[in-house]
Amino acid sequence: MKCYEYQGMYLSLTQFASIIGLSERMVRYYTKRGLNPEEIAKIAAGQTCEADETYLYQGHLTSISEIATNEGVNTSSLRGFLNYGMSVEEAIKRASKKCARKIQGRQTMPGVIKVEPESLFYKQRLAAGFTPEEAVTIPGFISKNSYYNQQECMRQHGYEPKPGETLNAIAQNAGISLGTLQRRLERGFSWEDAISRKVTEAYANRKNKEVLPVDHLGNVYENLNAMCYAWGVSRGLFNNRIRLGWSLQDALETPLLISAGEKTISEILERKGVIFYRHKSLRTIFTRLGLYKDFNEFIQEYIENLKTVGINVAPEKIRRMQYNFTLVQDGGVFAFIEYDEDVNFKFIQMFHQTFIRFLGKHNKDKFKNMFAEAVNIPLLRIKKSQLPIAESMIDDLLQNPARYQGAHNTFEANTAYWQEEEKQLSSLSGLALE
């Protein structure tokens, strides 16, 4: 590690840079150029050192840094052109062109409020098309167009601005953000009200008033999260739908995803005037039907029966279980309908990704069958290949519901219906260890 001998001390790069108030990068830069620590410290202090060569400039011997400051160019660029063998006039001309390319159109500098005449930024503004008066009057942090737009905005609202006065400064003095001030003016606030703290307090009081959300059926909820949970949609999805202009009913009732097959079945049920729910949890459905208390008692009994045959199921898993379609009749659940795509029967790498997920999908379908049979609710399963005859299958379900308490397809027995999936499970069982 390189040490710097400075004022009788041996310092590391970090220590030396910290003492003289220069960045480590600049210390390395001057060190590579052959400057010793004393010379680097003079540069950091703003003094000219012997290593900063002098050139004849306007009849006087002047250092490179002073020439660069007077001409408003970069010192390193000017030194580079001089070292290349150019005359002082040619080096200044080339450095000015290079500086102009870098600052072309530059009008602002963050954090700069007052622009000092003859400063580098002042010269940069002149190069960008400012008049001398504008370069000094307009605050450094704002562009010329924005400045004049803000001045005109203040005049339109009955306030005559002072030279150099901006909405940014007025908003800061009023204790509000620039965005808040601009929104208030756009909404028709008077100038006095727009910059008043009382308006902010009144808004805060109004914002803090407790307003309980109400859905389209008139049900009142503790908060939006509770309402979204009751309808089976996420808070984020609900907010996005409202933002896009959806009605409250559509935002709450529209399912998360709907396939072409499910859409076909939905249209068939609507044509027949059947009342149904799509992708709603059993908890939601039985709550709406006023049967939730009885449903809870049934779940406990059902779970106890499953335990006797060695199957353990959490009550919450049953409450959250969703069928594709739940048909309702006479204030109770009439039947379930499940639409099965190819992914229900075949292992598809892009969809399932792993054999374990495919097995989980299989177990979920089997569990739905077991539950429907246990509660004696008819369940009709429709394959994708059976969509053209789905209407006749639904007609048979509506006319002969008892038939589907044990068999779940109109034209195939349960074993035949799942035969393709069973073949996939047996052929892919070796993947479970991967």
Describe the structure.
The protein has 434 residues and is α+β, with helices and mostly antiparallel strands. The chain folds into four domains: 4-101, no CATH class; 142-207, no CATH class; 210-254, no CATH class; 260-280 and 322-433, Endonuclease, Chain A, CATH 3.40.960. It is 53% helix and 9% strand. It has helices at 13-20, 24-32, 37-44, 64-71, 75-83, 88-102, 120-127, 132-137, 144-156, 167-174, 178-186, 191-194, 197-208, 224-231, 235-243, 248-253, 260-271, 282-288, 292-308, 315-319, 349-352, 355-374, 390-399, 414-417, 419-428; strands at residues 4-6, 9-11, 54-57, 60-63, 275-278, 325-329, 332-340, 379-383. The strands form three sheets. A four-stranded mixed beta sheet has the order 5-6-7-8, with helices on both faces. A two-stranded antiparallel ribbon has the order 1-2. It has a two-stranded antiparallel sheet with strand order 3-4. Strand 3 and strand 4 (60-63) form a beta hairpin. Helix 10 crosses helix 11 (178-186). The chain is elongated. The relative contact order is 0.04.
